[in-house]
Amino acid sequence: MATITATMVKDLRDKTGAGMMDCKAALSETDGDMEAAVDWLRAKGLSKAAKKAGRVAAEGLIGLAGDGKEAALVEVNSETDFVARNPTFQEMVSAIAGAALNAKGDLGALAAASYGKTKATVADTVKEMIGSIGENMTLRRTAHLATGQGVVASYVHNQASPGLGKIGVIVALESTGDAEPLKTFGKQVAMHIAAANPQAVDTDSLDQAFVERERAVLTEQAKESGKPAEVIDKMVEGRLRKFYEEVVLLQQPFVHDPDTTVAKALEAVAKDAGAPVKITGFYRFALGEGIDRGESDFAAEVAAAASGT
């Protein structure tokens, strides 16, 4: 049996919003496994983790570059939002986004790429900026999409300056039809993705481990009803369909017309374009998602500074 510490209980409470005693019970039931404890709380209806999962945990900017046929995203993190508003930092992120078009989604290639017209690499430039501004920075990730026939549309939310913001989306639409309706619709889909945060284009594209984890949680929730196994199976399948409507792009209600789905809107634009249209992929970068920012103890920091440690 794992030892359940106060720190573990606090971390689980921060992740889920559940009560301290519930968090302690969850960790005890799952032998200290944090992910399993989150699922245990969700199954008991005690967790608010889903609402907290997308919270920003780091500063910096998402950078976007593209020409309609291809586009790239980058995330460059800084310690404070003050640096993100610095024009020099913004210029650097824009230039890195431009270099990301050639890196084709390879972070290592992007770090080793030339920065603009200089002899310095992107990685060297970030290090130089750290020394210049005096704040830690990280080239965290990049993504790239291209299409031979169709368009790659994009959207930046909370834009600090052109191509820079807090959320960046690129989405590829494949079609031999008229490009103009594709561009308009592509921008709408990119905005939809920014708002609705789908996990995959269609059900088949979902990570099956992700689906099975959700199925396990839904099964535990259904068992609480005390109904027979065959009824529970039907309950789980019904709830999974609802789950798909929440996380699968084509099944989500279209934010620009909630009375229809993205799939139905796609059929409508195909008529305008004069040819079938397929969404072949997308990327959504939200600044700081998935980064665990540790909480500092201000009193301890002052004490340490006073003692010279």
What does this entry look like structurally?
The structure is a single chain. The chain has helices spanning 6-16, 20-29, 34-43, 49-52, 81-84, 87-103, 107-112, 122-133, 179-196, 208-223, 229-247, 262-273, 298-307, and strands at 59-66, 70-78, 137-146, 150-157, 164-165, 167-174, 253-254, 257-261, 278-286. With 309 residues, the protein is α+β, with helices and mostly antiparallel strands. Among the domains are: 1-55, Ubiquitin-associated (UBA) domain (Helicase, Ruva Protein, domain 3, Orthogonal Bundle); 56-146, Elongation factor Ts, dimerisation domain (Tetrahydropterin Synthase, Chain A, 2-Layer Sandwich), CATH 3.30.479. The strands form three sheets. Strands 3-2-1-5 form a four-stranded antiparallel β-sheet. It has a three-stranded antiparallel β-sheet with strand order 4-6-9. It has a two-stranded antiparallel sheet with strand order 7-8. It is flat and about 65 Å long. The model is unreliable at 49-57 (pLDDT under 50).
State the main characteristics.
alpha+beta; Tetrahydropterin Synthase, Chain A; three-stranded antiparallel β-sheet; 13 helices
